[in-house]
Records
---
Amino acid sequence: MSDEMVTIQVDGKSIQAAKGSMLIEATDNAGIKIPRFCYHEKLSVAANCRMCLVEVDKVPKPLPACATPVMDGMVVHTKSPRAITAQKGTMEFLLINHPLDCPICDQGGECELQDVSLGYGGFDSRYVETKRVVKQKDLGSLVATDMTRCIHCTRCVRFGDEIAGSRELGATSRGEHTEIGTYIQKHLDSELSGNVIDICPVGALTSKPFRYNARAWEMSQKETIASHDCVGSNLSLHVRRNEVLRAVPKNNDAVNECWISDRDRFSYEGLTQSRLQEPMIKQDDKWVAVSWDEALEFVASELLSRTKNDAAATGMLMSPSSTIEEGFLLQKLARALGVENVDYRLRQSDFSETQTPWLGQSIADLSVNNATLLIESNVRVDQPMLCHRVRQSALGGGEVMSLSSVGYQMNFSMHESCVVAPQRITEELAGIAKVLSNLSEGSVCDELVSLYPGIEPSPSAIKIAKSLFDGATSAVLLGSMATSHPDYGLIQSLSVEIARLAGANVGVISHGANSVGLNLMNMLPKKELASAKSFGDMQSEGMKNVVVYNFEPVYDTYDAQTCLAMLRSAEFVVEFAMFENDAQKDYANVLLPITPNTETSGTFVNCEGVWQSFTGAVKPFANSRPGWKVLRVLGNLHNLEGFDYMDSSEVLAECKAHASELAGISASGQWQRQLDSSAGVARIGSVSPYAVDSVVRRAAALQKTSLAENGVVRLSPELASSLGVQSGQRVNISQGDETIELSVVTDHSVAQDSAVVPSDVVVSGVLGSLYGEIALQK
Amino acid sequence: MDSVNSHEKIELSPSVCEEIDQWVAKYPVDQKQSAVMSALRIVQDDHDGWLTTPHMDAIADYLEMPAIAVYEVASFYSMYELKPVGKVKVCICTNISCMLNGSDQLVRHLEEKYSIKLGEMTEDGQYSLKEVECLGACGGAPVVQIDRQYYENITPEIIDSILDKLD
């Protein structure tokens, strides 16, 4: 849209509007209300509800404000008799077939149709014929339907096409027989499907998990930040009697616009499942609930005496979705006790990165890149709101490419998709660097040359390199699977080399909600301290004392087998936990119940480096307490200096003082290959989008969707036929000492000799590293 | 994947694909879906005059468009049949001009003749009756379309003789 402005007159008031914009945008900006149903500022204009009809001078008929471009000198009347008559007429037509079932409709009280009909509807109906009835549809576990209430605004249809990038809903049949639906019996599969609930102006599409739970006016609205990915979508939680009943997006154009992922919307269901209620201590192999005083004094005295002698054999591990306040306090406590072994990088196995793993640019800028290379990233389901931006760049003519061990299905067309086995990712990157050195007439660094002598770039590498080089703004993005890759450091070094030669940005899409924040707070071993141990070192060397902060080792770590072994052999394990599980009862000595982010104040730093603070929406569950408060009291009990905070904002102020500026990502200095080219069947240990953290894993409705696919192994057809198995058959998968049985799905998008075995397979037996050799047997 | 979301798949025959290709060639390369109406007609003609969901899915795959967009087109236009139709499809216009000129009588006559209602097919699969909107030939109202042929100024007697001849 041009910057040129025109002046129009609306209801006698002179207003400025951008040339080419629609009348309704101008009136919205000026605060003049025009009723509408089909218009949505983020969607294309359909002009099919006709509710926004207004009178324009010198035009013989009323015009829809949403589809009428402003013109200089235009004189508009939104409340003239002619405009009002047109709007009331439209309203009467819209209500002809709409059932009068507001008392049993979930949308009642927050319904656009209800609101507008109050102003424009008649007192009684002149319609005496039979009303149409539309058969109920089953769209899956997230979206409930009452299609008789539908007014055919087609917002949901346009949303699927324009934002979700997969058209699942459509308007079938004609005239009075028109129906919005999927035509065939089908569940919504999109990772953004819940947004149709928000944009539906009537009660046709409502939230299934929330259904019949509460009325809008019974709930209060609390703002928070979503905690399941590195985007930090802004949310409004709707709370009644100290219970979170639903989550809806809060507008923030820089972060999530007006959308959120289904994961952020429906994860609240997990908040109250199997929560740890009381502090507990294991006495003579029996778990005993104790008071907070007793628990904290026990932990403080044990930690103090144990770290006095064994600080080097003590490690503190934290979930990457913990708040910055918690991270700052935990490392402060650790270091005050002389413990330098702290880490939050639970799904990593290479710890050689030297800088804060951030996006390298703003989230909004992702949508204007001319060329984007995604490395080991299933961004569509892992970080749906980042994918939304990348998709915008692709729709705008940008070239998006991927290099990964699975040809992930995106909701836009890929310029190039290079699928290779995990151990060959770095070779492809070296090939890209080599092509770029020719294109840019620069030279690749010596380390690369000596590691990959005489490498022949593949056709894909050539295409990718050319696109990155030609793009005016290009980005190389390391997906969260890349950060889990055993060669993460090398991938980063190679990416930085590629970016240097191509003039591109490097960015990392990190795990959890707050990897960037915890990194800024030094919740990881100091590089300059050789004796400080990373998570990997702690596991390989074994720890006597371990603090487990807010994660479930079986699902949230890179190598569950090794992590569990470390915890089981430790003498003393304190676990700060939101939830109960069987494994913790086995390895831990003390359990301290802490709160999810809906019950505490805190701050997440998202992947673009924006600090987003929030306050608790509800009181802590049962006897749990906010983690930062527990850490503060532990500091006090140790008589440590600087733990006398009155509230979390004081902690935050100290965090801010400690945080350094985000710098461009540079080479990790890692130039060695960990993953060998000659490995047999390689495991690709993806993390299912609805199993990323302990809250989401407990969200019931999400687990019933097709994205939450569980208990299957995906194999390339070649590998399946060499094993003599077909889709649907069972195979035994062995890694380390354990064997589990999964059902086979053959999938052309999986690299040869590789198998996708997610980290969250909820079956007996615990597997090892996310990337590693596995054995398959029929 | 969810069993709800998967169903039977079919492949279009080479001759059908060849015919569709002729229509695809008429549109810009990146707008293959413009050929959807022709494709639906071609596939319908090839399959006893009606379309199944797998047929529409195959067209969606072939023209690289969302399946729901094909369903929308096929369910919108009255010339596409989504359930089996008789060998002879009799379409009667019941819009204003035809109605004023006696289409009601025609409908009654044909319904009695074949003992079926509008939108139904005779048990032997020979005849279908279909109510259609304006066929754009009001000057010759009432109008009946049988397969691709228009018949104007129709009375029960005339339609009988036309249908007899078709037998």
---
Amino acid sequence: MGKTTEIMIAGFGGQGILFSGKVIAYAGLMNNKEVSWLPSYGPEMRGGTANCHIIISDEPVGSPIIVNPDVLIVMNKPSLEKFENAVKPGGVIIIDSTLIDRKVTRDDVTVKYVDATQIAMDNNSPKLANMVIIGAMLKATGVMTLDEIKKGVEKSTPASKAHLVDSNMGLISAGYNG
Amino acid sequence: MEKVFERPKALCNVPLHYCPGCTHGIVHRLVAEVMDELDITGDTIGVAPVGCSVFAYNYFECDMHEASHGRAPAVATGIKRVHNDKIVFTYQGDGDLAAIGTAETVHAAARGENITIIFINNAIYGMTGGQMAPTSLAGQITQTTPYGRNPKTQGYPIRMAEMLSTLDGARYIERVAVDSIKNIKAAKAAIKKAFTLQMQGEGFTMVEVLSSCPTNWGLSPVEALEWLRANMIPHYPLGVYCDKKLEG
Amino acid sequence: MSDKVLMKGNEAIAEAAIQAGCRYFFGYPITPQTEVAAYMAKKMPKIGGVFLQAESEVSAINMVYGAAGAGARVMTSSSSPGISLKQEGISYIAGANLPCVIINIVRGGPGLGGIQPAQSDYFQATKGGGHGDYHLVVFAPASIQEMVDLTSNAFDVADKYRTPVMIIGDGMLGQMMEPVTFQSKETASLPEKPWATTGTKGKREHNIINSLYLNPEDLEKNILERQERYNTIKANEVRYEAVGVEDADYVLVAYGMTARIAKNAMATLRKQGIKVGLIRPITLWPFPTEIFEKTAKTAKAFLSVEMSMGQMVEDVRLAVNGACPVHFYGRTGGMVPTPDEIINEVKKIGGVL
């Protein structure tokens, strides 16, 4: 049996939830994994809650819907309320502690608190908290390396915005090392 | 002996199914004569409607496409977008164009779609047996307005030429009638102008033709033409409503 | 290095259509398929194609009718309520024997319903939808790659049999991204269409695109002729995937996204020692009847799993023809069955629960 990692990212629309998912999915693809990326869609994308499901696997992906994620990344409190208990026992929860003022109540999961939004603001990139939190997730899960995620950043960034690759990678590193 | 009158080449050599005294035959002939004179039959694609002229596809020698009720301008749009070097026209009645197909008509004009619409306005639904049309006059008795069309409950007749002329996409719109030799000549000139403008890529053109329906009006052919003159022309004045060079 | 790209299902369909030689797209915005139109709006003007946002779905399908009659490879896309509006035009297109491709990215209904994924348009797609004696060929992809491959194939099937072809997906397939590759298809010379309205040039009789036959003998003849083509389609174009059915006691039946969920359930059940198989119809019409007849000889029961209140299950029952019990499990209104729900149903049927 190959390895399959199910990652759920949730937060507000506008936080770059879907884009960070795309970076992870593309990184998986560029590293010859099978991947799927499933967004929530509809009016809630604009300012309401947004989430996406990313599956990275050594085998063809079955259902792209994640019921019980291995990894949960949350960037707002409502999403933590909603998905905390869905995480598999032994799974990992990554929390943007700038925006979420409570702790995870479960003790059967690994939790990483990262001041993602604060770190992004300190780096003059308040909109890139989503990159910081990817870095934190890589460190906590080892699902892929910084070099591997870089390929995903490069592929997800349109040619017209290629100059953003370095700043995105800078924030991912900040999250990884933070 | 010199031949002074013959069937236009663009008109198929088949008997038309129209009632005696119906003016569809005249308008068919005018369209066919224009095709002959412009020598475009081999490059023209016509769209027939649902209504009395549903069989128009059997009467013109050019390629023809039968549309569903009201959708002829959409069908013509599809054809024209594929063959923009061809001349594309629709031939529609008042129910088809001004009731069920109002949206298609308005938006083809708004897009400045480079097609020509021949609009037969005879103020009644002919094929289904004489019901109220969107262009039936106030007070007009039809099968579905047996006490006369009452605008308060059955609405007012729509003046399509005037309405469409307000649209920036409309290039040329004229209302004509086929009640007299003089008017028939003017009608032919209008149809020819519309086709010619289309050939020049000028945009949306429509010729509204006031026509008679002796059968469903319950009049003789001659009385019907008189009724058209006395009642329709005052409500639907003849003339050019729009003839503007489009920007850009 | 992989030449795969991540694409949303809706965009992948649009790109696949363009690569299949489709140069005409007429549509009207509706969630969750709008990306098809957006992609076409961006691409078509750059390759000499036409994208036109019509004033309604009704107009859009009639523009398709005109363009198909004029001989073009043409497509429209919509989602459930919009597909309902298109039914009149679809009936005319079928009646006039014209090829085209119609995409339905299904959402919950009836009425305005919702915008979340559903499979409740199965009846509409496979049993007619519009009026009259006709069928659509209906493809139901389950992955983005399959959306690409079937879209390409849909144009060929449409042209070959002069029939409208529908690709039915759901909101999830339209919105999700997966890696895809595009087979660089030789821009194969498109088939001759001597029946199309291209202008007679004075060199042939006029062509007439039409579905009106007032004489019943003529109409019946026309329908029977089409029926012959349907029979050929049934013989040549049936597609399905069957996994683990040879030794299966219980056979799941599901199409599209639901089949992937069922596959997850199947894997879990197999691990637990319950012999489960899966039949995934890829053509919903024609329905892959033969594999059911074959499997029904050895299976104990079938379970049709759908995002509806039970539509495909009727075709499963017809195909199984009483040989063994056919059960149904579905979620609807935008709700999606989970693998656990399917596992429970199988266990109930097997008497394990």
